[in-house]
Specification:
Length: about 220
């Protein structure tokens, strides 16, 4: 296995890997490959934390990072003006080829880039995901632990999927408030469908009651 920075030549292969990894997982089809495509063009994207895992020349895992935006301490999540926070980052999409899952590749990508982020001077990482999985890397529920929220989030709802990790001890506790992801994470559904035409046709499953919308990604 080889862990290395992504190159320009890798981009379509990584987008296809992302599509295959997320297809029909959270909703019929997926948008994560288009999110990745848009994110690379954003000023919030962090190229020095854009890593892939390779096996015999084939890319089997990927992780990317971007900077978060901060509205400060607000009486209601979603109020205030957001500015890019140079100290707080998030990762995602992160994916591993289905035939390589369960081999610790995702853990290697996360742990390695966490240390890289810390060495670059970033103070904290925020993510959304499965708390049972991400707690093993030191992530804690952001709202309960640090009073850190996403726009529109209420402390009266289940916020366990939004998690934080301090790379500098005490940073999030002293920088509580509302944070927001880059706009790349909310692509219009029509644009996502158009972008998907660049890949081999795939059949979508039927919608389920617990599906996430693109806006919930």
């Amino acid at each position: 296995m080889e862990l290395r920075l992504e190159t320009k030549a890798d981009e379509h292969e990584v987008e296809n890997l992302t599509r295959e990894s997320f297809w029909d997982v959270y909703r019929p089809g997926c948008s994560e490959h288009y999110v990745l495509h848009l994110l690379r063009k954003s000023a919030a994207f962090i190229p020095e934390l854009d890593y892939v895992m390779c096996s015999s020349g084939k890319i089997v895992g990927s992780i990317v990072y971007s900077r978060m935006f901060y509205a400060g301490k607000s009486s209601a999540a979603g109020e205030g003006s957001y500015t890019e926070n140079p100290d707080v980052v998030m990762f995602g999409p992160v994916c591993v080829a289905k035939e390589y899952q369960g081999q610790g590749i995702g853990s290697q990508l996360i742990r390695y880039t966490q240390e890289k982020a810390k060495s670059f001077g970033y103070k904290a990482v925020l993510i959304t995901g499965n708390p049972a999985y991400y707690s093993r890397f030191g992530f804690r529920t952001a709202a309960e632990e640090y009073n850190v929220l996403l726009p529109g989030m209420s402390l009266n709802e289940d916020t366990s999927y939004f998690m934080g990790l301090e790379l500098e001890c005490g940073y999030l506790k002293t920088h509580a408030g509302v944070y927001m992801y880059d706009v790349s994470f909310e692509p219009p559904a029509h644009d996502t469908e158009e972008f998907d035409r660049h890949f081999p046709p795939k059949k979508k499953r039927e919608p389920l009651s617990g599906d996430l919308s693109i806006e919930n990604f």
